[in-house]
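lol ok so funny story. i was supposed to be doing the assay writeup but got distracted and ended up predicting the structure for this chain instead. priorities right. anyway since i did it might as well share w the group, maybe its usefull for someone
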Amino acid sequence: MSKRKTTRKATTPKTRKPSKLSADAAAEMIVKTVTASEEPKKASRDGLCVFAFRLTRDERDAIHKAAGPAKASRFARTLLVAAANDDLAAVKAIMAGIQTA
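and the output, tada:
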């Protein structure tokens, strides 16, 4: 084996520059960090499964029209579960909330 022709320079460890924040600004950042970490987390979706069925375009359009924009899946799921549980009051409440256009 041959010796290296160049020598390595000694490196100095990189250090962070001191913060230029005032004490108030630093305290505010800490408070924001603490409150952000305490926000409620979304429920786990592990227990969910898929239930699918086929519709005609007219049926799909009618569901979208009744539910309103971007709410068709939730509308259908809520109505189906209420009907399956024989919850007439919930079905009536959902039917009363249908958007008419």
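The CA atoms of residues 4 and 10 lie 16 Å apart. The chain has a mean pLDDT of 78.
back to the writeup now i swear
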